[in-house]
Amino acid sequence: MNTVGFTRMENGTVEDYALLSELEEQYVRELPDRLMDALSRLQKTLPGYPITRLEHSLQSATRAHDAGEPEELVVAALLHDIGDELAPVAHSEMAAAILRPYVSERVYWIIRHHGLFQTYYYHHHLGRDRNAREVLKDHVWYQDCVDFCHNYDQNCFDPAFKSRDLEFFRPMVERVFSNPKPEFT
Ligand SMILES: [Fe+2]
């Protein structure tokens, strides 16, 4: 049996849910492959920039890696805009939700808020408040998010920058996504 017998969850059996649990565990283990596929598709999002979102993501991760950042932050940098395609007005939340079971609360917080913090670099050009992020200025990780945006995001649109390729980061993605925190399993 590789398909459950029910058409309504309320009618499922012990055997049905044992099967689904086993298949779900395998599906979760394959997440790194799906993330790599999703990253490779970031070539078509958000027109107008000098480079693709994939190249931007690779620049971000390369800069974080070369600066000696922890592996979880390098992987977070690689994934920080993965929500651009399907959550273009809430992309920080989407990336943060993907990362949350696998990274520290600090790295989760940085990615969760990076979209707001990035507005510092352009909102004044649109007649909006570039300092909106200051509502979070007393947070313990405020400066970490400021630094992330300054060092690994706002500066990562350079066509001349030589990034590592996507496959360079695959082992890091596999390691970070191999071990979800107990509260998520
Ligand atoms: Fe970005």
Model description:
- The chain is mainly α.
- It is globular, with a radius of gyration of 19 Å.
- It has eight helices and no strands.
- The protein has one domain (about 10-185): Hypothetical protein af1432, CATH 1.10.3210.
- Helix 6 crosses helix 7 (about 140-150).
- Helices cover about 50% and strands about 0% of the residues.
- The structure holds fe (ii) ion.
- Fe (ii) ion binds near residues 80 and 153.
- Fe (ii) ion (FE2) binds near residues 56, 80, 81 and 153.
What order do the helices and strands come in, and which of them pair?
Elements: H1 14-29, H2 31-40, H3 53-66, H4 71-79, H5 91-99, H6 105-118, H7 142-152, H8 170-176
Helix pairs in contact: 3-4, 5-6, 6-7
The structure holds fe (ii) ion.
Key attributes of the depicted protein:
single chain, 185 residues, mainly alpha, Hypothetical protein af1432, 8 helices, globular, binds fe (ii) ion
Give the integer mean of the pLDDT values.
96
Taken as a percent bin, the fraction of beta residues is under 5%
What name is given to the CATH topology? Hypothetical protein af1432
- Helicity level: 40-55%
**What Rg is obtained from the alpha carbons, in whole angstroms?**
19 Å
- Which spans of ≥5 residues are poorly predicted at pLDDT below 50? none
The count of domains is 1
User: Which second-level CATH architecture applies?
Assistant: Orthogonal Bundle
- Order of H and E elements: HHHHHHHH
What class, by secondary structure content?
A: mainly alpha
Distance between the termini: 25 Å
Q: How would you name the CATH homologous superfamily?
A: Hypothetical protein af1432
Biggest beta sheet attributes: none
Bound molecules: fe (ii) ion
